[in-house]
Amino acid sequence: MRCRTHLAFRVTRLPYCRAARHESMTLKERSTLVKRQTVWLSAMMVFSLMLIGYYTLGTAPATPGGNSVSINGGSSGTPQTSVSAGSSGTKVTTSPAASTPVKSQTVPVSSNSASDWFVSMQMNLENSQSKLIQTLQSTIGDPRASNTVVSQAYSELNALQSQQAAEGKVHEQLVGAGYPDSVVIYNPHGRIHVYVQASKLTALQAVSIINTVSQTTGVQSNLITVSAHA
After folding, report:
1. CA-CA distance, 81 to 71, in Å (whole number)?
2. How many angstroms separate the CA atoms of 182 and 114, rounded?
3. Rounded CA gap, 208 and 201, in Å?
């Protein structure tokens, strides 16, 4: 009877030991899986923070409706890239080459050479600014002009001179960044259109140019348009 009882004890105990060992291995595997998931989530959080920091560093605050910045290839047939920055993140889309000229181009240029194109653009811009300066100075020196008109002319003249200084700084910075030539045009409603001498621009290059122009001129990034011309 003692032998049978001992044998029965051993037989009934064996399944319990195997079940315990199986349960122990399962807990170990679960612990390893949890550690791997924790490491993966931490890495993804760091990567996301790096991306957010890259796209927001040095840019002006976004408007509630979102910012829209277009990079146009102009009439040279290069692809057009649109960079939109809103509350949901940055979206980059590329469309086929456009066959029509850029609508915001207001200075006529007859030369086909890229270098001559930028020289002509800059000369036309400077001529327009010189005429405006002469007009404002004439108004300021007019003894028949009222104090209100003279004060407004002074304000416009100071703004134009500050604008010219900012244009020169932007040009120097873009040349230092590797672009052979550039021209900065102030459009109505406080918008800026920047042309750089390049066959095309990537989204990252466009964002970098927009940040440079925004920091130098004080104009918000959603009011800046960058175009590549070659």
Report:
1. 5
2. 10
3. 11
Map residue 148 onto helix, strand or coil.
Answer: helix
The widest CA-to-CA distance across the chain, in whole angstroms, is 133
Q: Yes or no: say if 170 and 184 are a contact pair by the CB < 8 Å rule.
A: yes
Report residue 98's pLDDT band, with 50, 70 and 90 as the boundaries.
Answer: very low
Q: What is the DSSP letter of 145?
A: S
Tokens 């003249």 belong to: 157
CATH of domain 67-229: 1.10.287.4300
Query: Rounded to an integer, what distance in angstroms lies between the CA atom of residue 99 and that of residue 105?
Result: 14
Which pLDDT belongs to residue 39?
Answer: 53
Overall pTM surpassing 0.70 (yes/no)? no
- Whether 203 and 54 have beta carbons less than 8 Å apart is answered as no
What one-character-per-residue DSSP string does 178-191 give?
A: T-S-EEEEEEGGGE
β-strand partners of 80: 95
Show me where the domains of the chain are located: 67-229
How many helices and strands in the chain, by DSSP H and E? 4, 6
**Residue 165: C-alpha distances to residues 22, 130, 170, 172, 226 (Å):** 77, 14, 9, 11, 19
> pLDDT digit string (tens) for 139-186?
999 999 999 999 999 999 999 999 999 999 999 999 999 999 999 999
